[in-house]
Write a structure and sequence with these properties.
The chain is built from 19 helices and 26 strands. The chain is of the alpha+beta class. The protein folds into 3 domains: 1-120 and 194-326, Rossmann fold (3-Layer(aba) Sandwich); 352-364 and 374-512, Isoleucyl-tRNA Synthetase, Domain 1; 574-676, Beta Barrel (OB fold (Dihydrolipoamide Acetyltransferase, E2P)). Strands 17, 18, 19, 20, 23 and 26 form a 6-stranded antiparallel sheet that branches. Strands 3-2-1-13 form a 4-stranded parallel sheet. It has a 4-stranded antiparallel sheet with strand order 5-4-9-10, with no helix packed on it. The mean pLDDT is 93.
Length: 677
């Protein structure tokens, strides 16, 4: 039994400056949701906190890029991400915003408490200033070469390649992202957190106490940081977007986003507690509360060193018990990159694979980057869904329900409570329950999911070896026992499945014909003789090759669009251009070229004649949608045979941002045969 009376579980606040991708989900939100769903099934008092991080330079950078205000950016992406989380089934108790007044009040009160205790050191220092933009530059407004790994596009606060936390002054060849100019150093005043004063305490708390409790990747990064020696870090910024520093002498300055963002967990808890009639302080100030932060590895330092220092300095708050940070998820042999559009976006996945959220939950859990980077590929996704979810889990449930309806009209045989008639099946269930529980308690989510699938395989093997279809006539009682055993095993599997595959578990509960979703983790399913099951339904469908090829094609087009346009060809004389006879023509008929995936055969009315042109646009247009369209034709191109068809000219196309070929057409309808010059 846990020694904690309640749990405060947080998931990293995503910046409200762009949509979510599967790297975000695998890194923090899916493991957090799995853990919280398990705690609820155990009947524990838990609050699951998240929300949009809406301040800081990342927001203002996006706003400048899109030519809108920061408020428009955060409103847009808060709504997009909140909706994406809800569609995917991440079960936050509250999804809050750091732009809410309660967050400003909470952050400013926290800062003032530390200020009144004399914690901060006020220092004048040199910081980068963009003379052209006439403003000091936040860390994210500066890029340069990382001094630790040599990456040429590191930010002023962090290198995305090696994960090192940086100061902008450490960058080699710094450049302002606002104007592309080299910034200059100017003096400015800021409030610094003297982290070096807390180094002895951190050594005791992390190096000694957490060594065998925290994941090795988390502990290792923290230990390395401490051993390098901690330095003062500014807790304020010269920026016009953020929580204002609540001091008269700090006009025009805001709280550093890594001070106010973690406090967003606290302000969100306050809002939640107000809404449900609870005391928020129980979840942040009582020692019998377990505080767990789910994050990605790029946030380890902030959650394990800086935020705990702030909490310790404040004096009233509990410290994180666990920070089960994950490493990075890569994609098709490359790092996920939002700037290069090299990502599987969560909302696009749910549009393309409707009602298949559990399939993605399953695959991301099996490849979870729990202690090292891992990789998602579309072919692996297809294989895991088809060979494991469809062929193992879905197949077992489907076989059992079909046999039950075939031999017993879907009614459980016998009288009274149904128990296993095979002792080893009961033992397999109890071992699975304990093993999965241990894995979930210790954040080993992929191992727990593997144990669940092993339990299903036990059921599949038992059903196959029992061969009830061969005994239906001669041994009906034996067949009844086999079917009942399999139904009971299915019910237990659904219980253990709930943290991992909640929608699939709900489907099985529905097929079991229970009036409401049951069961707590340690509560056995109550099945009795005579209970009527519902008709079987397929839990999963196969992922087809064409679906995977479409997704791979999207990524390939993303990579294509990152390539610079081809260089300009050699100059030609005006007389050379005059040799081209460019005319407007209308498509009057169109059909696919047999056994040619990319070719369409078009019949064009050129105003001079009707002629046939073969074009490689079949992947982007259906024949019927082209009829009546006007196109631009190179009319005097020498004819040539293509797949046995004489093509008399060429229609012109351009390539869009997604790599699609798009017809070049006049804006307004013109007479066929009109010359283009």
């Amino acid at each position: 039994m846990s020694s904690f009376k309640r749990y405060t579980v947080t998931a990293a606040l995503p910046y409200a400056n762009g949509p979510l991708h599967i790297g975000h989900i695998a890194g923090a939100y899916l493991p957090a949701d799995t853990y919280v769903r398990y705690l609820r099934l155990k009947g524990r008092d838990v609050v699951f906190i998240c929300g949009s991080d809406e301040y800081g330079a990342a927001i203002t950078i996006r706003a400048k890029k899109e030519g809108v205000t920061p408020r428009q950016i955060i409103d847009k992406y808060h709504a997009i991400n909140k909706n994406a989380f809800a569609r995917f089934g991440i079960s936050f108790d509250i999804y809050h915003r750091t732009s809410e007044p309660i967050h400003t009040e909470t952050s400013q009160a926290f800062f003032l408490r530390l200020h009144e205790k004399g914690l901060f050191e006020v220092q004048e220092s040199e910081q980068y200033y963009d003379e052209q933009a006439q403003q000091f530059l936040a860390d994210r407004y500066i890029t340069g070469t990382c001094p630790k790994c040599g990456y040429s596009r590191a930010y002023g606060d962090q290198c995305e390649r090696c994960g090192s936390s940086l100061s902008s002054l450490e960058l080699i060849n710094p450049i302002s992202t606002l104007t592309g100019t080299t910034p200059v150093l100017r003096r400015t005043k800021h409030w610094y957190l003297p982290m070096q004063q807390f180094e002895p305490w951190l050594r005791s708390w992390i190096v000694e106490e957490k060594q065998y409790q925290w994941k090795p990747n988390v502990y290792g990064q923290c230990k390395s940081w401490i051993e390098q020696g901690l330095q003062p870090r500014a807790m304020t910024r010269d920026l016009d977007w953020g929580v204002p520093v609540p001091l008269p002498e700090a006009e025009g300055k805001v709280l550093y986003v890594w001070l106010d963002a973690p406090i967003g967990y606290i302000s969100a808890t306050k809002e939640w507690a107000k809404n449900v009639g609870k005391n928020w302080e129980d979840y942040w100030k009582k020692s019998d509360t377990k505080l767990v932060h789910f994050i990605g590895k790029d946030n380890i330092v902030f959650h394990c060193i800086i935020f705990p220092i702030l909490l310790k300095a404040h004096g009233e708050f509990i410290l994180p018990t666990d920070v089960p940070a994950n490493e990075f998820l890569n994609l098709e042999g490359d790092k996920i990159s939002t700037s290069r559009n090299w990502a599987v976006w969560l909302d696009e996945y749910m549009d393309d694979f409707q009602d298949r959220t559990d399939e993605l939950r399953y695959v991301l859990t099996t490849i979870s980057p729990e202690t090292g980077d891992s990789e998602f590929t579309w072919r692996d996704f297809q294989a895991k869904v088809n060979n494991e979810l469809v062929a193992v889990l879905g197949n077992f449930i489907n076989r059992v329900w079909i046999l039950s309806h075939k031999y017993f009209a879907g009614k459980l045989a016998g009288e009274g409570k149904i128990d296993f008639t095979e002792e080893y099946l009961q033992k397999a269930v109890e071992q699975a329950r304990q093993h999965i529980s241990d894995c979930l308690e210790n954040y080993k989510f992929k191992n727990g999911l593997a144990a669940l699938m092993d339990l299903v395989r036990v059921g599949n093997k038992y059903l196959t070896e029992s061969e009830p279809w061969k005994k239906a006539t001669d041994q009906p009682e034996e067949v009844a026992n086999v079917i009942n055993n399999c139904i009971l095993l299915s019910a237990y599997s659904a219980i253990f499945m709930q943290p991992y595959l909640p929608k699939t578990a709900e489907k099985i509960f529905n097929m079991l014909n229970f009036s409401q979703q049951f069961h707590l983790w340690d509560q056995p399913p109550l099945l009795v003789g005579g209970h009527l099951l519902k008709e079987p339904q397929l839990l999963f469908g196969k992922i087809e090759d064409r679906e995977i090829q479409y997704q791979i094609g999207k990524l390939e087009r993303s990579k294509l669009m990152q390539q610079p346009p081809p260089p300009q060809k050699e100059e030609i004389a005006y007389e050379d251009f005059q040799k081209l006879d460019l005319r407007i023509a209308t498509v009057v008929a169109c059909q696919k070229v047999p056994q040619a995936k990319k070719l369409l055969q078009l019949t064009l009315d050129t105003g001079l004649d009707q002629r046939t042109v073969v074009s490689g646009i079949a992947e982007y247009y259906q024949p019927e949608e082209l009829i009546g369209k006007q196109v631009l034709l190179v009319a005097n191109l020498a004819p040539r045979h293509m797949r046995g068809i004489l093509s008399q000219g060429m229609i012109l196309t351009a390539q869009d941002r997604d790599g699609r070929f798009v017809l070049v057409s006049p804006q307004n309808t013109v007479v066929n045969g009109s010359q283009v010059s």
